[in-house]
Amino acid sequence: MNLSDNPRKFDFSKKYILEDDFVQLLPLIEAHIQPLSKISDDTDIWTFFFENGNTIDALSRYIISATDNRKFNKEYPFVIFDKITEQYVGTTRFYEYLPIFNTIKLGHTWYGKAFRSTGLNKRCKYLLFEFAFEKIGLERIGFGAMRDNIRSIAAMKSVGCKEEGVLRNMFPSRDGKGRTDAVLMSILKNEWYQSTKYQLKAKIDT
């Protein structure tokens, strides 16, 4: 059997919609620039991004770049919609899909200030993991963050990610003084089915 023989390959041309009773993830499009601009004017969001989206022009470039990358099968960005408040609250995306290895990465995630620490991130991650492992049949989802992005690392661990290594001096420091490490994390399909799925669901339901 060829390593790439997965009958359920990730298809960048499809309109994937992931949702539960509280949140919906839709393919990101340029029409989302305006509603997202209401929450993106927050420098705290972009502290650990190499892109910026805290002005309408910067956000436009950010979103157009992501949607263009989808056309080239490089990234699949989602906009996050809170069904309770009926507001767009942030974005996330799959990227670096390697069909020959049946793996993908997940990141570039941000939420408006009012929607952090509300449980939305855990709901989104549950839907994304369920989709990747159960619908597409992927074997691994990779994650990464700057060493000093403590909030992001804690959020990844809270949804079941396991730290697996460090890339030393991977990125320029955000303060422009020296360099910083990248922390690598992941979730595997067997971990999802054995425990992570049930542990994350329990957190969502409490």
Provide a compact summary of the structure.
This protein is of the alpha+beta class and 206 residues long. It has helices at residues 33-40, 56-71, 120-135, 150-158, 189-205, and strands at 18-19, 23-27, 75-82, 87-98, 103-111, 140-146, 162-172, 179-188.
Walk me through this protein's architecture.
With about 210 residues, the chain is an alpha+beta fold. It has one domain: 3-Layer(aba) Sandwich (Aminopeptidase), CATH 3.40.630. About 30% of the residues lie in helices and about 30% in strands. The chain has 5 helices and 8 strands; from the N terminus they run ββααβββαβαββα. The protein has helices at about 35-40, 55-70, 120-135, 150-160, 190-205; strands at about 20, 25, 75-80, 85-100, 105-110, 140-145, 160-170, 180-190. The protein has an 8-stranded mixed beta sheet, with helices on both faces. Strand 7 and strand 8 (about 180-190) form a beta hairpin. Helix 1 packs across helix 2 (about 55-70) and helix 3 runs antiparallel to helix 5 (about 190-205). The longest helix is centred in the C-terminal third of the chain and has 17 residues, at about 190-205. The chain starts with 17 loop residues before the first strand and ends with a helix.
Which key phrases capture this entry?
eight-stranded mixed β-sheet; 8 strands; Aminopeptidase; alpha+beta; single chain; 5 helices; 206 residues
How does the helix and strand content classify structurally?
alpha+beta
- Please identify the top-level CATH class: Alpha Beta
What is the general shape?
globular
Order of helices and strands: EEHHEEEHEHEEH
Number of helices: 5
Number of E-type strands: 8
Arithmetic mean of pLDDT: 94
Annotated CATH topology: Aminopeptidase
In the residues, how many domains can be counted?
Answer: 1
CATH architecture: 3-Layer(aba) Sandwich
Q: Percentage of helical residues?
A: 25-40%
